[in-house]
Specification:
- The protein has one domain.
- The protein has 348 residues and is mainly alpha-helical.
- The N and C termini lie far apart (56 Å).
- Helix 9 packs antiparallel against helix 10.
- It has a two-stranded antiparallel sheet with strand order 1-2.
Amino acid sequence: MLLIFFAIVLVGLYPMEISKRGQFNKSYLSIEDTTSIKGIFVLLVFCSHFIQYYDLVTTIDQGYMPFRKFLGQLVVVMFLFYSGYGILESIKKKGVNYVKKIPVNRCVKVLLHLDIAVVLFIIFDFIIGKELTVKKVLLSLIGWANVGNSNWFIFTIVVLYLITFIVFMIFRKHLWLGALFTTALTVVYMYIMNDYQDKYWFNTALCFALGMWYSIFKEKIEKILMKNEIIYWAVLGVTAFALLWCYKNRKEFAIYEAYTILFTLLIVFGSMKIKIGNQILDWFGKHVFSIYILQRIPMTIFGYFPVIEKNVYFYFTLSIALTVLMAQYFDKLMGIIDNKLFVRKKIA
């Protein structure tokens, strides 16, 4: 498993462009660049889920665990950050008309895609003889429960979309107030969820609001960091040092929140100097949802075969290959459905 992890890192770093001294990657928050970064992290999510189906029996396998322990929930923070950043950038450009469409174009669309995936899992569960209650099936349609699929992230992101919709319908073009109340309501959401779900359901949610704040302060941040390379490296070093301190003390909830924010900023600041991207990462970055939601089916299928399960590389290769195949056709289907339901046709 450790070798697989390093293979993913190598895929992520090739080819890697490092900006020359005094220069920066000005496109670090472009769709192209962020798609590649999301590609790396969805592969890390795959690894994190995969070891739930495979016993790490060798020393090399066990060597992966320190990396997994360090990353933990950090594998999803960039998805939240880029989503929050992207939404506020869209609100800046399109205003209230964009906000009005959030319930349908964001919430309904995500839940529809989730529900279609849930149907696939229900069929799969029926085939393998897994019993499901009506209550569990109904709750799985909104992401509160699951029928074998991953679900917490979907539920959380839909809630964050709804919070954004409510807040910006009230404050409209007042971006500061919108970001402030989105942050406040996110904290309220985290407080409420603490009574109902495990902490991993909500302990990265603030990274969504962080994306909004970054959008607001982006020009000022770049003016400071990109003007003087000494300042840039100093800020990067302090961020990395603070991250390590928070990692050692992350059992405290407030410190864990700082831990997630610092890690996110470290990736963002790092992407100002380092540009990554290739066709593999680009593909995975464009299929994040389908890979995230479908990957447990292949992992479960091949886990039924002891010959496959005993060989981590064979097991992993088959699981990711089938996931890629399923994701490709799932997204094609979703594209057809989205075009019929969510894309308004221009009247000639």
